[in-house]
Amino acid sequence: MNTKQRILNAALTLLNEEGETAISAVDIANALEISPGNLYYHFKGKEEIIPALYDDFEEEMQIILQSGHKDMRSIEDQWIFAYIVLEEIWDFRFFYRNLDSILDRYPVLAPKFKRLLNAKRKAIRTNLNNLIRLDYLHIDQVLLNTLVEQNLLCFTYWLNLQEIEKRDIPAQTAIHQSVFQIMTLSVPYMGEAGFNALQGMQALLEKNLAPK
Amino acid sequence: MNTKQRILNAALTLLNEEGETAISAVDIANALEISPGNLYYHFKGKEEIIPALYDDFEEEMQIILQSGHKDMRSIEDQWIFAYIVLEEIWDFRFFYRNLDSILDRYPVLAPKFKRLLNAKRKAIRTNLNNLIRLDYLHIDQVLLNTLVEQNLLCFTYWLNLQEIEKRDIPAQTAIHQSVFQIMTLSVPYMGEAGFNALQGMQALLEKNLAPK
DNA sequence: GTCTATAAATGGATAGAC
DNA sequence: GTCTATCCATTTATAGAC
């Protein structure tokens, strides 16, 4: 693996663990046991590393969003989709934990992130429409619009809120809880099937929490 | 007004406008046209200013939360309550915009903020229970728990998400939209009355947006 | 490509005069 | 209480040897 890629990997780990504000370019070099000069040969500091990491993230997320609406034929498919999206966010959580300040300080990222938000919005809507078409979901148009926005908010911030309340929460737990909350948003618009799916979700959740 | 208070006022304005990471202690001194030495006489830098601002915020918020559940006898009271809470958050929005990084860097604040989250949770639950008692809301216990959490997430992050998507969104607009989203969470558990209240909210929203 | 050494820039902090 | 002057620490960034 070449140095450029090693820098990106080390940076991602450090940023996720310590937070974006806490890590300097020199810290990343130290963690890799290379010299700051070497790091600056590959990247002009954090200013270039962070956009590079974001591009990796966006590329992977776009693939997830685009593959999402294929073969969506049950409520379970819906929560598997949510699970995958949240896992991807988890892998780049340093970014979501400091959204505003990062978008301020790396201006190239602001338009890109807005574009990604809209792609997420669209994917959420497609999936919900799928559930409507499959007759799992019964909802009028106005409430569908707000349901899309509620979903988007949950995808964007639930992991954050959990990390604030429980530092060092295991990824699995945080993601499970977030999926559960997201699914619950749709439950009142589903009939019996929705409520049953939710119960199943919760049982799974408790099973995963117990062994810890 | 004494210098200590003037520093806090100027700091709050600057932090809300420029963001916490962008403002140094010297910036605050410059904005007030006092010397850095003078500022350091009153506060040992941002390290003391930010917790002082937080304490002001928490005190005001606790008063709001405690007065919230008095005289709650209609759905409209509910959204007035949401409005007041969000206005208070807006006044100290620099804090919410960088939650994780601020709680990391000012460790005294983390336990205080968790305590405040729990106070909010409790206030939300009290209000929803009130609506149940008044027979406006019909919901089982499991879903009530998740509804409380959904409300908490909206109160905490809706303003943020809007500011990311529309830089310089007017306070009124952002707060209205957030109230609307929060109320919508309860709508499926209300009957006709809830849907009507929502329609009223939306009409109000559009009226307030139109003149701009 | 990688290192050492060092410079430049910024923010945080204090001493001492007024 | 307030100012000027100055210092220290950290982060950012580059030059030049290997």
Describe the structure.
Two copies of one chain form a homodimer. Chain A has 212 residues and is mainly alpha-helical. The first copy, chain A, has two domains: 1-44, Homeodomain-like (Arc Repressor Mutant, subunit A), CATH 1.10.10; 54-209, Orthogonal Bundle (Tetracycline Repressor, domain 2). Chain A is 79% helix and 0% strand. In chain A, helix 9 (141-165) packs antiparallel against helix 10 and helix 10 runs antiparallel to helix 11 (192-209). Chain A starts with a helix and ends with a helix. The model of chain A has no long low-confidence stretch (mean pLDDT 93). At the A-B interface, helix 7, helix 8, helix 9 and helix 10 of A face helix 7, helix 8, helix 9 and helix 10 of B. Chain A binds a DNA duplex (18 and 18 nucleotides) through residues 3, 24-26, 34-38, 40-42, 44-47.
Shape of chain A: elongated
Helical content of chain A (DSSP H or I, runs of 4+): over 70%
Count structural domains of chain A: 2
Largest interface: A-B, 39 and 39 residues
- Radius of gyration of chain A, in angstroms, nearest whole number: 19 Å
CATH class of the largest domain in chain A reads Mainly Alpha
CATH superfamily of the largest domain in chain A, by name, is Tetracycline Repressor, domain 2
| Mean pLDDT across every amino acid position of chain A | 93
CATH-derived topology of the largest domain in chain A? Tetracycline Repressor, domain 2
- Which spans of chain A have pLDDT < 50 for at least 5 consecutive residues? none
Number of separate helices of chain A: 11
- Pattern of helices and strands of chain A: HHHHHHHHHHH
Q: How much of the residues of chain A is beta strand, in percent? A: under 5%
Cα end-to-end separation of chain A = 35 Å
Q: What's the count of strands of chain A?
A: 0
